[in-house]
Amino acid sequence: MTKEALELLRDLVRQDTTSGDRAAQAAAQELAVSYATATAGVRVLRRSASGRPWVLLGTGSGSGALFVCHIDTVPAGSPDRWEHAPFSAAADEKFLHGRGTVDMKGGLVAALAALRNAAAAGADAQVLITSDEEIGCRGAAEAAGSLELTPRIVVVPEATQNRVSLGHRGATWLRLAAEGKAAHGSTPHLGRNAIQLLAERVLGALGSFPLSAEDYLGEETVNVGTFEGGTATNIVPASAVLTLDVRTVDGGAPAIAWASSLDPAISAEVDLDLPAVRTPHLPDALAEQTTAPAAAYFTDASALAGSVAGAPIVIWGPGDPREMHAANEKLELESWREALRNYRELVLSAAR
């Protein structure tokens, strides 16, 4: 099965499934479905009828392990930055190279192989394949609105070097827009500079931004992601927009309240508000595994946590997290083979 799984992985890496391209993501999902359902006992349980594509595959009633995987990737960027072409799926003895190898097509294929193992053994397991995770878990959110899942354990196969992470922070993305008044650049006193307004009221106030901490998840952070404004050097800018990426442990409400109270001339919109995920202890099915710190990134688990009947959620997958979103992304093949073994054992033990 390992050889066939590797062939599927290379085929998936050759597909450009950048977030936002629904057709490309749907086509790649069909490759995954074809591979999984080639084993008797694996079937498509539910799938999206419209909107962002997602598909739920399973072997039974859904009381075993559930793997939550996304098919999309971040953009590859300029090919000039890559030693191997980003969609070539070039391989050598140690690594498979290409966009999405680590984040997270390697984990997805390992989960699909485990699903086939479960079917062959008469065990119960499911794999949910989502889309547009990289732009805010949009596909998982749509799936959550249609599914009532009852797994024993939920695994998100993101890269953790095969150590078990028990959660991650949430994310609140804010869009702050300032309205000023245009004027000639030589008479700024006749206008109101929207860029300066945002700089003074927002950037100048970041020192008072409400940030909390949690023992395992760590400290909350805030990052200014973008800042746009102005049309010409000699015009007082009438509008400006900046975005904030807040990683939360205690929900997004404090950040939203802070942004909404800055200035009457500054509007605050919430682009994304995902909760933190925290499993209090290592699930019994993974008692022999090594634990890892909280994942630095967010995952589809934030969107699905309310739809899995309180099942423990872990982030546990092959690959080095430092490869995620990087040029020259590469997956260590031995790490991937270890995940194949881990997931096979999990689906069998979770069904006992």
UniProtKB/TrEMBL annotation:
SUPFAM superfamilies: Bacterial exopeptidase dimerisation domain, Zn-dependent exopeptidases. The keyword Transmembrane helix does not apply. The lineage of its organism: Bacteria, Bacillati, Actinomycetota, Actinomycetes, Pseudonocardiales. It comes from the Bacteria. Keywords: Hydrolase, Metal-binding, Zinc. Its cofactor is Zn(2+). Belongs to the peptidase M20A family. Residues 167-254 form the Peptidase M20 dimerisation domain. It comes from Amycolatopsis rubida. This is M20 family metallopeptidase. It holds the Pfam family M20_dimer.
